[in-house]
Q: What sequence folds into this?
């Protein structure tokens, strides 16, 4: 797959799916030990993060981003919205100070005017449209309007009756604002900024929304949500919300405005009332979200149409008020250490924060079990791999199935052969990943965890769709009933052992 270091949606149209989607990150700053701008930029560059959204237009941050090529969305904070929305001159001064002073060295590509204004700051809603227009006019005057798009992020809560998506509509009480906002976006060839949080939809559903549906986990066809009006099948909450926004716009006779998701993510830690705010769930959600975005999957209503997304957020913010989860949406801590390992293999190196340059060879998901078994037997026999850690009672015996045992054997051979090209194939049932497949006490060859320096393994809940026991030269295994397979996942998507 070609590397997708992707273009911003500067001129996207729903009549074309030519643009590739991108994944960016939001930069919150409510940290007691906030990294310096140069440290932030160093982290972005190390992770090959090419799109970032700032919640302000901090001068030091914009200077640090100069000459990096990183595409930047700057923001008009809500506390400045009233002044800008009431004065064209104030808007022009804002553009002069926060945009013109930095371009072209800093690659500013969008301005977010306010944040969730209709729901978070309703008293400023009457000036939102004028703020958008004044900011845009200042860009036109500076001949920057083609390079920099103007929009405003909305909470998905402005969409009522979001399922089925075909019946969704925007809260009618905001029509006097929403309709001119959409017409502005349409006339300036901009896009709708939407914040999408399946975590909150799941939490507020009181069990109606299955966790797997919120996490992008595969669902059997009879469990998929079907829009009875369109017969479109929805396999995840994210797509349903995005399509609800598309349908809500079409209800207002607007059908050609694309959507960029300005915030989405999952908390990695919560209090007793938030049992599903866990490392594994955050890992799973963001892994599947990024794969979904970068595959240009689109949505059931607009398949193949890019839905670029910014992950919320780069750092855990320990100073944020509220519940434990509010402080734990980050991908990294203040020291730049990953909360959980972020990888993107097979489609570039965005968010690939494996600073140890580790690669592993794993069994390819969906491979024929007989071919896996044959390759496993070869690795443990003619391949001269030490398969003793998979003996019953040894650290890598569990889970006892052909996929995880083959993964161990394939990787052991790959590492033994110094990762030489062609040594991770096994007739097509193996693939290379940067996700460390180590799990529990089973530390794989090549893992930093072998030295006790880092163990980046997490595992999803066991799957019940595999009953095959594994064997490595039959010496190693007994056949005593059925066994479940545990899918090992690092952080991000496209790991060969991630759900497909």
A:
């Amino acid at each position: 797959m070609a590397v997708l270091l992707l273009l911003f949606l500067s001129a996207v149209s729903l009549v074309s799916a030519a643009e590739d989607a991108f994944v960016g990150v939001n930069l919150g700053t409510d940290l007691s030990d906030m990294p310096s701008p140069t440290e932030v930029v160093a982290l972005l560059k190390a992770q090959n993060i090419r799109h970032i959204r700032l919640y302000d237009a901090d001068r030091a941050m914009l200077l640090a981003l100069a000459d990096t090529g990183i595409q930047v969305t700057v923001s008009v904070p809500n506390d400045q919205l009233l002044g800008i929305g009431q004065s064209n001159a104030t808007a022009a001064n804002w553009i002069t100070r926060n945009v013109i002073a930095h371009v072209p060295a800093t690659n500013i590509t969008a301005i977010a005017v306010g944040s969730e204004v209709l729901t978070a700051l309703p008293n400023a809603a009457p000036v939102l449209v004028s703020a958008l227009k004044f900011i845009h006019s200042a860009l036109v005057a500076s001949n920057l309007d083609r390079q920099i798009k103007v929009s405003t992020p909305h909470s998905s809560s402005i969409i009522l009756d979001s399922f089925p998506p075909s019946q969704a509509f925007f809260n009618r009480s905001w029509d006097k604002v929403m309709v001119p906002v959409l017409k502005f976006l349409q006339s300036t060839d901009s896009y709708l900024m939407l914040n999408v949080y399946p975590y909150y939809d799941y939490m507020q559903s009181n069990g109606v929304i299955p966790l797997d549906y919120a996490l992008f986990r595969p669902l059997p066809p009879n469990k998929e949500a079907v829009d009875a009006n369109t017969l479109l099948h929805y396999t995840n909450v994210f797509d349903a919300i995005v399509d609800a926004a598309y349908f809500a716009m079409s209800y207002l006779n607007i059908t050609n405005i694309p959507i960029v998701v300005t915030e989405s993510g999952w908390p990695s830690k919560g209090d007793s009332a938030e049992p599903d705010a866990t490392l594994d769930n955050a890992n799973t959600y963001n892994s599947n979200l990024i794969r979904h975005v970068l595959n240009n999957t689109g949505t059931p209503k607009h398949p193949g149409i890019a839905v670029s997304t910014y992950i919320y957020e780069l750092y855990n913010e320990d100073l944020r008020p509220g519940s434990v989860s509010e402080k734990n949406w980050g991908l990294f801590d203040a020291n730049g250490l990953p909360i959980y390992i972020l990888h993107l293999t097979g489609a570039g190196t965005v968010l690939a924060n494996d600073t140890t340059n580790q690669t592993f060879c794993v069994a390819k998901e969906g491979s024929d079990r007989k071919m896996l078994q044959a390759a496993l037997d070869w690795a443990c026999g003619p391949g001269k791999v030490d398969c003793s850690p998979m003996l019953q009672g040894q650290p890598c015996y569990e889970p006892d199935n052909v996929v995880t045992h083959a993964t161990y054997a394939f990787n052991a051979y790959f590492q033994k052969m110094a990762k030489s090209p062609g040594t991770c194939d096994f007739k097509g049932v193996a693939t290379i990943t940067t996700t460390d497949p180590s799990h529990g006490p089973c530390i794989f060859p090549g893992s930093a965890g072998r030295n006790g320096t880092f163990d980046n393994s997490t595992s999803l809940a066991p799957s019940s769709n595999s009953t095959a026991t594994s064997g490595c030269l039959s010496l190693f295994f007994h056949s005593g009933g059925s066994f479940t397979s545990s899918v090992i996942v690092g952080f991000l998507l496209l790991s060969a052992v991630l759900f497909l």
